[in-house]
Amino acid sequence: MLSGKILTRLFIIHFQKFAYSEFIILIRTVFAMHINKETIESVFQHALKEYPDECCGIITGDGSNQAVHKCENIQNKLHAEDPERYPRDARTAYFIDRKVFEGIISSAKKQGKEVIAFYHSHPEHESYFSEEDVAAQTVFGQPEFPEALHAVISVRNGKIHDMKWFKWDSDKQEFIKTMIEYK
Questions:
Q1: What integer is the mean pLDDT of 78-94?
Q2: What is the pTM of this model?
Q3: CATH number of 34-182
């Protein structure tokens, strides 16, 4: 964590060079982009448990106090009920029930917590942010939670292959790969 003196100096230097809004982005980047190792382990366990299907979930919290909400992937149910509308099954897609989603978000807000990240797995595929992922996370071209991180976990042969993180870039109007600090 940066001390007050360093933060003040950083503000003065940065403010002289860039617009105030860019400073806010810098501060959010410095302070908001860390995930607890316990949180990562819980996400990995979820991905392995759901394999060969995609897992999905939400990470909420405030700073170092993080909660992993392991959501049920209802994609198979949707596919069985309406294969024309939902042509993919849970091996290549995920869907969180909107009522469950809203309940997690509402509960987090009531507790003064934020949505830190959304996550899902890609069984037998690389960890990338697909066109389907972008479509699922954006409404009219904008994400519902622009400050949230997005993790994609690659699971191959029943083992964690890798994980990549993505964040909305409002200037570029797209999700970009980002680095996360694990604490």
A1: 97
A2: 0.81
A3: 3.40.140.10
